[in-house]
C-alpha cells in the first residue's frame, strides 16, 4: 500500500508528464495563438460579468427605491393619523377639564335645579365616555 507522500509524488509525476507531452505536441506559434484565444475569452467573460453586475445593481436600486418611496408614503400617512389622533385627544382632554370645572363650580340651588344639572351633566359625561371608547376602538383597529 502506498503512503500519502508516495501517492502525491506519483500524481505530481503523472501531471508533469501530461503537461510535457502536451507542450511538446504544440508548436510555439500554436501556443501563442491558444494563449491569445484564452486571453480574449477571459476578457470577454470579465466584460460580461461586469455588465451583468451593473445591470443587477441598477435593477436592485430601482426595486429598493420603490420600496423606500412606499415606506415614506406609509410614514407620512401614519404621521397624519397621529396628528389627527393627538388633536382628538386634546379635544377630549379639554371637554373632560370643562366637565370637571363645571362640576366644581356648580352653584345650583334646590332639588329641581340639581336634578336638571345631573341629567344634563350625565348626558355630557356619557357623550365624553363614548368618544373616549371610540377613540380607543379606532386606535386598536389602526
State Rg.
43 Å
Q: Largest sheet, if any?
A: none
The shape is: rod-shaped
Secondary structure tally: strands: 0
- Secondary-structure-based class equals mainly alpha
Low-confidence stretches: none
Question: What share of the residues lie within helices?
Answer: over 70%
Q: Give the SSE order as H and E letters.
A: HHH
Approximate strand percentage: under 5%
Distance between the termini: 76 Å
Q: What's the average pLDDT?
A: 84
How many distinct helices?
Answer: 3
Search tags:
rod-shaped, 142 residues, 0% strand, mainly alpha
Summarize the structure.
The protein has 142 residues and is an all-alpha fold. The protein contains 3 helices and no strands.
Notes on the protein architecture:
The structure is a single chain. The chain has helices spanning 4-25, 28-104, 111-141. The protein is mainly alpha-helical and 142 residues long. α2 (28-104) runs antiparallel to α3. The longest helix has 77 residues, at 28-104.
SSE topology sketch:
Blueprint: H1 4-25, H2 28-104, H3 111-141
